[in-house]
Every structure is written in structure tokens, then in C-alpha cells.
Amino acid sequence: MQRKSQRKSKAWSYFEEHQLPNGKKGTRCKKCGDDLSYTGSTSNMLGHLESKHPEILKEMEKTQEEEKLSQTQLSGPRSMFKLTPLPPATSNVITKALVKYITADMLPLRTVESENFLSLLRTLEPRYSPPSRTALTQTELPRYYTTQRSSQRAPCQRSEQRQELHIQL
Ligand SMILES: [Zn+2]
Q1: pTM above 0.85, yes or no
Q2: Helix/strand number for the chain, H first, E second
Q3: Residue 36 Cα, ligand 1 centroid: separation in angstroms?
Q4: pLDDT, tens only, 95-114
């Protein structure tokens, strides 16, 4: 069961998922067996605890308070951004791959401004901030073409070497 890691709220320790007679998703109070509709948040559960089992709610709030005090790291989705920053080397590698993807597939430069594309990048690496379209044209593309040119020089050098070999033979 992954429930504990996915749902941080303590309220879930007192409820379980339960399908309502109308087929909708609901929760059932472990304490009294009452069915509640589930609206995507714990508000119904908390409301139930408040009116039916105030002592549980009190206990819950107490433990949550204690945990908050002892917790050094933030939990929840925000904690992702609390991770160590992306090393510049990694960021450069991603940018290089991004530029290669755009140039090799001859994609429009506005791709880097596409919300869906940015969402993909954020999903893969939330700490990465892609270059703007301007940065792409003014910095990244010229740099990419420069490295491309220098890597294309390698085969020439090799053929020069081969020629030398021929001469020597
Ligand atoms: Zn109850």
C-alpha cells in the first residue's frame, strides 16, 4: 500500500477508501463505519471527525503539530525544489541535448516556448530551466554549430593521417 506516502494527511489513518452505493468514490470512517463522499480533499473527513469524534481530531492536530516541530525537511511537492540545485554541468548536458533535438529535427525555435514542451522538461528535471528563445538563437545555437564544426574536423584529420601513411608506405 502506497497510501501513506501519497496522502500525507493524518485523516487517512482514520478512514479507508470505500465505494459509495452510487458508484462514486468515498471514504469510510474506521471508528464508526460512516460513509462519506470523497471530494478530492480531506475536508469531509475532517468535518466528520470534528462533529463525531472531536477527541480524534484533537489528537490528530496535536501529533501534526509535534511533527511539524521535529520536521527539518518540508514534505509535499514543494520539497522537490528544496533539493540540491542542478549542477551546471548537468544543465549544460540537457541544453546540448535540447539544442541537438531542435536542430537535428529542424523544429521551430518556438518549441522552447511551448507550454507542453516546457511541461515535459519540468517533469523530467524540475530544477532545469531551459534557455529562452533569445538565448537559444544568440548563444546556444552558435555554440552548437561551433562544436559541430570542430567535431567534423576530426575525420579530415584522420584522412590526412592516412595520406601520410600512404606517403610513408
Ligand atoms: Zn466516524
Answers
A1: no
A2: 7, 3
A3: 9
A4: 999 999 999 999 998 999 99
